[in-house]
Predict the structure of Ion-translocating oxidoreductase complex subunit D.
Amino acid sequence: MALLRVTSPHAHGPMSTPRVMQQVLLATLPGIAVLTHFFGFGTLVNIVWGGLLAVAFEALALKLRGRELGIYLRDCSALVTAVLLGIAMPPYSPWWLIGVGMASAILLAKHLYGGLGYNPFNPAMVGYVVLLISFPVQMTSWEAPRGIGEVPGLLDALRACFTPGAFDGVTAATPLDVLKQNNSLLVDNLWASQPVFGRWGGLGWEWANIAFLAGGAWLLYRRIFTWHAPLAFLAVLALMAALFYDGGSSASGGSPLFHLLSGATMFGAFFIVTDPVTSAVSVRGRLVYGALAGLLVYLIRVWGNYPDAVAFAVLIMNFAAPFIDHYTQPRTYGHRKPQRSGGDE
């Protein structure tokens, strides 16, 4: 009697690709709610319009590749990409900018390499970087948060997306950009003179980071990913900020708390660095991967040309992930580590 031979790995429990993607979508809700409160409905419009486009591009790519639409569309991976890119983009982005970003993420970064599981680079971050390099003005025009100006309503958000000329919002530099451009004021004086700063980080940004931290903690609780990469990312970022923090001079790069609660720090740590397809897979590899990503974020933020650097850091580490995995694979059960004798060449 011939028995069916099944090789490892063996999946246990109810978790599947659609369930994992749905958990990720649920975990983004606190951050989306905070962004909507402080910046208005622009992020929601980004997500809804981007989600429709992402599903359409996904269906088009599957059709051209001769794949069954129902199976692949139900895995929710296109929606996750749309939500992550929609969060990363400035609120009130025009419809064509969202379209270019979604096309780059779904068609270029995902299906050009064979679809989900074969893409070497994070699709949402590819779409973001394509837009940031190609359209820097639109990608750095963030709406002033609640507390500085009036937060636009839903109709204003729709006008900004589909009829950009009919909407004239009040934009403001991000806190990371303000600190990066400062070369004359002490940090305390800069904090007092600029309304974009909040209690610990940027006004609105600090609460958004706390909300994404809560969503990330939920994903850890649900065991969607392990703690190694996000904790290493945050620890090294905070360590670098502590080592190079000079007490708040005009040349200061910012305190550890400022870096942890400004920009896309928590969003990147728990929703981007943890991508199971494009990150390292071994335990030690995840620690190295997250630590180097955190190091790159600080280096680019403080000494690079971009105030926030999560997308660039993640894409650079996507390059390095196979190399990291090669040198951090655990010892095979039942075998000793190879010993190199002193006389070997």
Observations:
- The two ends are 52 Å apart (CA to CA).
